[in-house]
UniProtKB/TrEMBL annotation:
InterPro entries recorded: ITPase-like_fam (IPR029001), Maf-like (IPR003697)
Site (Important for substrate specificity): 15, 80, 163
An example molecular function term from Gene Ontology annotations: UTP diphosphatase activity
Family: Belongs to the Maf family. YhdE subfamily.
UniProt name for this protein: dTTP/UTP pyrophosphatase
Major localisation: cytoplasm
Organism placement in taxonomy: Bacteria, Pseudomonadati, Pseudomonadota, Alphaproteobacteria, Hyphomicrobiales
Cofactor(s) needed by this chain: a divalent metal cation
Species assigned in the record: Roseibium marinum
Length: 208
């Protein structure tokens, strides 16, 4: 029997790691991709999410290909973009950005695009884009100020983390909840299986 390829997660996100572990997958290595995430001129949020996921997978694939011990691995990468209309919101790092995002999202629907990509040892890159629609309640000034004070928004697409305190803002969600957190699980499992990775290998022991 052939050995299963190693699984490399091209992300430092604890949320993506936890989602993988939820479906019984434990990456052998975490190798965050260091790429420029600046949107291109006129690039749609949908195209941006898919391009960044693929670019992350390809960047880490290059690193892995240079290593004898990792060459046979499968690389998994993802990127999440929160959009209001055709506008991609930033991954908020500053208080002003977080407040801008929250006021834009308050009382209205937005879309979350998550791209996921798998780069195989043979050079093939498979990818999927998942779109989820989310609606926030109307946020009071206190909601926004208290959320900004929590610091939870830092580094998050659209300035919020749905799996955290901001879950109390969500009135409606249509689509994939894990994709909004950062990794669409159905599509991730599908892409990994298509790349020959044994997605269910840990299931027999997972429930024990």
């Amino acid at each position: 029997m052939m050995n299963a390829p190693q699984l490399i997660l091209a992300s430092a996100s604890p949320r993506r790691l936890a989602l993988l572990q939820q479906i019984g997958l434990e990456p052998d290595h975490l190798l965050p991709a260091d790429i420029d995430e600046t949107p291109k001129k006129h690039e749609t949020p949908r195209a941006l999410a898919l391009r960044l996921a693929r670019s992350k997978a390809e960047a880490v694939r290059q690193t892995v290909d240079a290593s004898d011990s990792l060459r046979d691995s499968v690389v998994l990468a993802a990127d999440t973009v929160v959009a209001v209309g055709r506008r991609a919101l930033p991954k908020a790092e500053l208080t002003d950005q977080a407040l801008m995002c929250l006021s834009l999202l308050s009382g209205r629907g937005h879309r979350v695009f998550t791209g996921v990509a798998v780069a195989e040892a043979n050079g093939k890159v498979r990818s999927k884009l998942v779109e989820t629609r989310v609606r926030f309640k109307r946020l009071s000034r206190k909601d926004m100020d208290d959320y900004v004070a929590s610091g939870e928004w830092r580094g998050k697409a659209g300035g919020y983390a749905i799996q955290g305190l901001a879950g109390s803002f969500v009135v409606k969600l249509v689509g994939s909840y894990p994709a909004v957190v950062g990794l669409p699980l159905v599509e991730t499992a599908y892409l990994l299986a298509a790349a020959g990775y044994p997605v269910h290998k840990g299931w027999a022991t997972a429930a024990a």
